[in-house]
Amino acid sequence: MKCEACDANAKLLSPSEIESLMQEVGDWSLIQDSGTQKLRRVFHTQNYAESISLTNAIAQLAESINHHPLIVVEYSTVTVEWWSHKINGLHKNDFIMAAKTSDLL
Predict the structure, then answer these.
(1) How many other CB atoms are found less than 10 A from the CB of residue 64?
(2) Which of 9, 17, 36, 51 could anchor a disulfide with 13, C-beta 3.0 to 4.6 Å?
(3) Is residue 105 a contact partner of residue 43, using CB atoms and an 8 Å limit?
(4) Looking at the DSSP assignment, which residues form a beta bridge with residue 74?
(5) What is the CATH code of the structural domain delimited by 15-103?
(6) How confident is the model at residue 105 (pLDDT cuts 50, 70, 90)?
(7) Which residues 6+ apart lie within 8 Å of 57 measured at CB?
(8) CA nearest neighbour of 101 among 65, 47, 74
(9) Looking at the predicted structure, is the pLDDT value of residue 9 above 90?
(10) What is the mean pLDDT of residues 18-29?
């Protein structure tokens, strides 16, 4: 699937749509952060250099689509959160990007 432009008028996914799409991105968790639903996954690496390499690959992916996640880099983990800022919640683009992020490994 490909991402489509998402503007402030885009609709948030319904709970049933989210439940269905969660099955497609198995290792991702659905979280609530200050009332906003987000997708989160913690990727484990061998060391800091691998964490930075993964972070750079995610950044390139995000730039290619113009949809950017929160990325937290630690020594041997990279935590990634996807959500659509313009609608303050989840859009199908977030699930597409979560799947594409997982494919980077």
Answers:
(1) 10
(2) 17
(3) yes
(4) none
(5) 3.30.1360.20
(6) confident
(7) 104
(8) 65
(9) no
(10) 95
3-state secondary structure 40-71: EEEEECCCHHHHHHHHHHHHHHHHHHCCCCEE
Distance CA 40, CA 69 (A): 10
The residue count for the chain: 105
pLDDT at 36: 96
Domain boundaries, the chain: 15-103
Distance from C-alpha of 39 to C-alpha of 31, rounded to nearest angstrom: 6
CB 13, CB 36: distance < 8 Å: no
**pTM for this predicted structure:** 0.93
What pLDDT band is residue 57 in, cutting at 50, 70 and 90?
Answer: very high
Beta carbons of 51 and 65 less than 8 angstroms apart: no
DSSP state of 12: P
Given the structure tokens 């989210």, which residue do they identify? 18
